[in-house]
Amino acid sequence: MLIEQRYFETLHKGYGQYFDVSKVLFEQKTQQWHLIIFDNPTFGRIMALDGVIQTTERDEFIYHEMLTHVPLFSHGNAKRVLIIGGGDGGMLREVVKHQNVEHITMVEIDDAVVDMCKTYLPHHSNGAYQDPRVHLVIDDGAHFVNTTDQKFDVIISDCTDPVGPGEVLFSSDFYAGCKRCLNDSGIFVAQNGVAFMQIDELTTTAKRLGHYLPDVTFYNAAVPTYIGGAMTFAWGSDNPQLRQVSLETLSERFKNAHFQTRYYTPALHAASFALPAFIEQALASVDEK
């Protein structure tokens, strides 16, 4: 919420953070949501929805690089990629860097989100929408994966937290649809919150996604504005070897991709699947039930 030129995030009960607001660039309040885009002297331009920080100019590269390059370099030969959500264009910006990818479908529920982010967060997409491989579909993500006749090698769910409109992208119906349109030895990844503060989200995803893909786990990265500890990303595939690709192979693939990153490295990729004990214990409790 915005109080006297400070924006207070209200995601976690009894704990939070605030951002000084230099200038409000866009604000929209309806009965369903409150969306605001503002400038901050430390993190640059920030977008927040219903009291929750969605993205900032300064640290978005961590989130977008890890949710994109980990599955794509793990797969090694992805030709068709599906992005669910991601209207700010950051995920798309990273996917188009992979020249071996031939077709990219991005499904966003509202074209106004895309237009707004092009206007106020242009550095996120950085011209990626102009790539001829990109096909933008305006549709509900769960509806798309359950009705499309297309198949994909990698599916990236760039979803909000599982409340309100974002809840459907954590449902069993959504995971069933993703399994339906995922090629054999394909990879599904998704944002899954900050495990230390939202461990129930992680175990719920493990239960639901595990019904459809035999190899389900999580990997992590530290994104400063997603407070409360390291952010976790869900991983699902029918091929467990894809998350065990050697560092040597990852390094060779990264070298041959001929682009630079600001956070992702092959070594970080390999290390990101090493989970703290409290997450391993939570996942073990799911397996025991």
Please describe the structure with a list of short key phrases separated by commas or semicolons.
289 residues, four-stranded antiparallel β-sheet, seven-stranded mixed β-sheet, alpha/beta, 10 helices
Protein model, in words:
- The chain contains ten helices and 14 strands.
- It is globular and about 50 Å long.
- The longest helix has 16 residues, at about 60-75.
- By secondary structure, the protein is of the alpha/beta class.
- The chain has a seven-stranded mixed β-sheet. A four-stranded antiparallel β-sheet has the order 4-5-6-7, with no helix packed on it. It has a three-stranded antiparallel β-sheet with strand order 1-2-3, with no helix packed on it.
- The mean pLDDT is about 90.
- A hairpin with a 2-residue loop joins β1 (about 1-5) and β2.
